[in-house]
């Protein structure tokens, strides 16, 4: 059977325009005539195997993208126009074929717009079910895609073996290079033809990073610190270089919706960026030598406090693991932003909802590291280390985005860390998993009554807590 012919004229033309080349210049580089290139761009000639290889070697083109042609977009457009809302708009597929082949960017825009419309409708449906009034039956189990991803990631180990192996294999090409951020930028330029530019705030006011695939440029905001700028570049490298490993790990998460899979794919790319910037074996060795001092680690690897702390949570390779830390980040209003753990975040044992935790006190001492031991009602003790995190740089008049991050572990294992001295030097702070589940009497910080006890409604007696109970 003959090999399927590949017609990808619009994509070739887009590559040429993105590089600012004339047909003559590209034809000369590919070893063909300008007239033949013109026929290829108008889909009157297919791409030969030799031309595919030449495009790949000269312009670092992804062959998979060229092989896909317009078939993928065409199938998605067919699904969109099969929607009852649009079913009567087109008499046949010919117009869709023309859009997919002659205007692939417009086709991609239509697909993204319809996808956003569908997901918004799904979210509104979920919200309706969550806010069902008296007499109404909410849909069972309705969750937003972000909640689905959060629940899956919080309940499993924060260690992803396929990504770690792929990152280590990729890093071997750089040898003993000391400046990984510079090496990543060089790789993007040499292997993928992508240049990195730092854009001023007025040009990119509300984005951290944007990749323009037509001009092959990666834009990063000047709002970010140098460590965060390097992290955004590493995310792009991870997305491209660790793609197969990301997809393998994504498959293992067994997510239900396309939107949840996209959110998880981005989270896995962030994980891959950490694995690239802080290679597993060197980072574990440095962590053990410094007794898990986050400030020393972030300085040594040129990363932020949040990145170094997040990497500590992932050090759970069988036979070469670190302290089994868990992590939680909140904002000043107490909203939970993320949670992760070496064996999953310890919801049932630690909880993390007690207002007496030092993660809340950290907002009163920005930039200071607070370490203490806490004790739960069942006698379980944990070492907790809290510190505030600063968001992107802001202009005059803008409010600073400040969050707080808690790094925790069981007190016995925490003694091996530089923060472990508080385990024996201080009395533990008595906490609970959350006010609704805590039965500690006389707690000055109690914000809600426990669900396990009736309230003590004695007009003659007033206790220290706002919610006295029997």
UniProtKB/TrEMBL annotation:
One of its GO terms (molecular function) is DNA binding. Signal peptide: none annotated. GO terms for cellular component: cytosol. InterPro entries: Cro/C1-type_HTH, HTH_RamB, IrrE_HExxH, Lambda_DNA-bd_dom_sf, ScfR_C, TransReg_Diox_bact_type. PANTHER family: HTH-TYPE TRANSCRIPTIONAL REGULATOR, HTH-TYPE TRANSCRIPTIONAL REGULATOR SUTR. Keywords: DNA-binding, Transcription, Transcription regulation. This is Transcriptional regulator. The keyword ATP-binding does not apply. Residues 12-66 form the HTH cro/C1-type domain. Belongs to the short-chain fatty acyl-CoA assimilation regulator (ScfR) family. Pfam families: HTH_3, Peptidase_M78, ScfRs.
């Amino acid at each position: 059977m003959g090999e399927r012919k590949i017609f990808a004229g619009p994509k070739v033309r887009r590559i040429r325009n993105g590089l600012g080349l004339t047909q003559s210049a590209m034809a000369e580089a590919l070893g063909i005539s300008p007239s033949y290139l013109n026929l290829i761009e108008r889909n009157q000639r297919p791409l030969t195997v030799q031309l595919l290889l030449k495009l790949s070697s000269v312009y670092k083109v992804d062959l998979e993208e060229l092989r896909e042609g317009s078939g993928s977009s065409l199938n998605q457009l067919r699904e969109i126009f099969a929607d009852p809302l649009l079913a009567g708009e087109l008499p046949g597929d010919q117009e869709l074929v023309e859009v997919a082949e002659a205007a692939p960017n417009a086709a991609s825009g239509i697909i993204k717009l319809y996808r956003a419309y569908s997901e918004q409708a799904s979210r509104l449906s979920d919200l309706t079910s969550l806010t069902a009034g008296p007499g109404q039956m909410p849909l069972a189990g309705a969750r937003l895609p972000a909640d689905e991803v959060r629940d899956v990631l919080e309940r499993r180990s924060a260690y992803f073996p396929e990504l770690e192996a792929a990152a280590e294999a990729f890093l071997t090409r750089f040898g003993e290079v000391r400046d990984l951020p510079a090496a990543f930028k060089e790789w993007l330029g040499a292997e993928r033809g992508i240049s990195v530019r730092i854009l001023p705030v007025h040009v990119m006011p509300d984005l951290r990073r944007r990749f323009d695939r037509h001009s092959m440029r990666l834009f990063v905001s000047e709002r970010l610190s140098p460590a965060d700028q390097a992290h955004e570049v590493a995310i792009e490298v991870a997305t491209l270089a660790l793609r197969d490993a990301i997809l393998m790990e994504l498959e293992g998460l067994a997510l239900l919706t396309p939107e949840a899979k996209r959110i998880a794919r981005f989270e896995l790319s962030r994980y891959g960026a950490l694995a690239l910037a802080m290679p597993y074996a060197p980072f574990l060795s440095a962590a053990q030598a410094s007794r898990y001092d986050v400030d020393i680690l972030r300085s040594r690897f040129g990363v932020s406090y949040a990145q170094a702390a997040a990497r500590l949570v992932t050090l759970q390779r069988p036979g070469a693991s670190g302290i089994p830390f868990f992590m939680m980040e909140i904002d000043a209003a107490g909203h939970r932003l993320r949670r992760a753990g070496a064996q999953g975040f310890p919801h049932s044992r630690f909880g993390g909802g007690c207002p007496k935790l030092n993660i809340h006190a950290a907002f009163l001492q920005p930039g200071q590291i607070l370490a203490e031991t806490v004790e739960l009602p069942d006698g379980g003790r944990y070492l907790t280390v809290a510190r505030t995190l600063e968001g992107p740089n802001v202009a005059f008049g803008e409010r600073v985005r400040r969050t707080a991050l808690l790094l925790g572990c069981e007190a016995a294992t925490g003694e091996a860390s530089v923060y472990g001295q508080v385990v024996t030097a201080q009395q533990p702070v008595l906490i609970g998993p959350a006010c609704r589940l805590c039965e500690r009497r006389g707690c000055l910080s109690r914000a809600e009554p426990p669900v396990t006890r009736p309230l003590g409604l004695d007009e003659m007696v007033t206790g220290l807590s706002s919610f006295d109970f029997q």
